[in-house]
Amino acid sequence: MINEARQVWEQMLPMLETELSILSYDVWIKSIEPLDIRDGKLVLMAASEWGKNTVNTRYLPLIKAAMNRANSLLTDVEVISKDEKDEFNEQAETFQIKEEPISIAPEPMSISLKYNFENFVVGKSNQLAVAAARAVAEEPGLRYNPLFIYGGAGLGKTHLMHAIGNSLRDSHPRLKVLLVSSEKFVNELVKFIGFKGNGSSFRDKYRSVDVLMVDDIQFISGKMATTEEIFHTFNELYNANKQLVFTSDRPPKEIADIDDRLRSRFEWGFTADIQPPDLETRIAILRKKAQIQKYNISMEVLSYMAECISSNVREMEGLLNKVILLSQLNEAQPSIELVREAIKDYSQKDEGEITADDIIDATCKCFNVKREDLLGKRKTRDIVEPRQICIYVMTEVLDLPLATIGNIFGGRDHTTIMYARDKVAQSMSQQKTAYDVNNVKNMVYKK
Ligand code: ADP
Ligand code: MG
Questions:
Q1: From its phi and psi, is residue 98 left (phi > 0), alpha (psi between -120 and 50) or beta?
Q2: Domain 279-345 has CATH 1.10.8.60
Q3: Who surrounds ion ligand 2 at CB < 5 A?
Q4: Which atom of ligand 1 is nearest to the CA of 151?
Q5: What confidence tens digit (pLDDT) does each residue in 193-239 have?
Q6: Do 334 and 297 meet the contact criterion of CB atoms below 8 Å apart?
Q7: What is the architecture of the domain spanning 356-446?
Q8: What is the number of the ligand 1 atom nearest to the C-alpha of 161?
Q9: How many angstroms is it from 153 CA to the middle of ligand 1?
Q10: Domains of the chain: which residue ranges?
């Protein structure tokens, strides 16, 4: 059973890693040692009493959820400290251990446990989208099909999609639910088309699901060759009363270069947008996020933070985490001063004052590349990556038409700029890209 414990734990680790901040994962989770499985209970050992208490108060529900996914036959989890190990081993001798084989069948990690309806704050800006998402989770395939949710970056589209998935797992556990990024979806499709019909796995996989959710569907724009197959896949699912859910950063009519039939298919069911949250909702979101981390922050400080960042919940969360970290480092309660300290990096320069040159300079410095290379034609990887990041930051920070950005980059076409922007946006979930983008931005705002 000791080996089984290790096997289960190893499957749980990547799930926990995606759910937790790097800091929490490194400090609290990586140091845990799986000890044994006893009577269906997974026993874990934390390095210290402090570790045991922290894991028990903060991470137990997440650990349990990951364990249920890794092996649904396990019923409970117990965390002990290193000091309790001897006592635990002695007990083992008096135990009757049932050596039931436990089948280990990992489920693909498509739905994040972190995002559910309970921890999604509802306000005027998103209530329609939430109501539709809940209805879909209750009665998939019946109403609102397809459900199309759109809105700006960091406003909770992906969160809602995972919430639908989690809720479905509880209320309709037998349904086959698949959540994919549009990038993955298109990649698999392209591979399938490459097989010229010999490999039917794409069709089998996608057409056998009960609920298909595709995140950031706007990225299929411009991939005309594949939109026909996509259209047929969605159509078949729809006709079989299977539920479809899409998210996008823009409404269907603004997704360029897709099959018109596909566009009208998106518009067929129910389209809901999410707007930036008002102040009250922003405060409620910050409060919830602080609660989740078991942090008590005064109303005054929460309101101040909510005033500082208005249009992107992800950035607001970033600020909150920074404030929490600073307060831990300084062993002080979160205060307005700490918030000021935390936003110093990006508040020294107002967005309005930033120019394309500032962003180019910052990119050159961060990546140590020459300006003429960045703006020129060279296509080696060490130049292309910084160039794409630079373009992405420009589209985020500056209010410039894509064609103008194209001119800055040596007369490139606006579609090239769009491609670069979307490519980076698509990989923002990867740590390296997010890090590079933030690095450039920090440098820009610091100047
Ligand atoms: P999008 O997919 O729209 O870019 P996400 O769903 O990734 O945005 O949300 C970004 C972050 O903001 C996530 O951590 C999410 O939990 C949080 N968030 C956004 N809106 C809300 C909300 N109304 N309540 C709670 N958290 C939210
Ligand atoms: Mg998203």
A1: beta
A2: yes
A3: 158
A4: 3
A5: 766 555 567 777 888 899 999 999 988 876 666 777 788 888 989 99
A6: yes
A7: Orthogonal Bundle (1.10)
A8: 6
A9: 9
A10: 2-89, 127-274, 279-345, 356-446
Distance from Cα 181 to the centre of ligand 2, integer Å: 9
Position 102 scores a pLDDT of 35
Which residues of the chain are modeled with pLDDT < 70?
A: 92-109, 194-200, 222-225, 345-352, 446-447
Question: CATH says 2-89 is which class?
Answer: alpha beta
Assigned token pair, 47: 């390095």
Residue the block writes with tokens 């923002």: 428
d(CA 299, CA 4): 47
pLDDT per position as a tens digit, 115-159: 999 999 999 999 999 999 999 999 999 889 999 999 988 999 999
Ligand 1 first shell, C-beta below 6 A: 115, 120-121, 126, 151, 153-159, 285, 288, 313-314, 317
The predicted pLDDT at position 346 comes to 53
φ, ψ of residue 147 in degrees (nearest 5): -95, 125
Closest ligand 1 atom, CA of 156? 6
Q: Which ligand lies nearest the alpha carbon of 316?
A: 1
Classify domain 127-274 at the CATH topology level. Rossmann fold (3.40.50)
User: pLDDT tens-digit profile of 285-301?
Assistant: 999 999 988 888 999 99
| Closest-CA residue to 277 (of 291, 287, 267) | 287
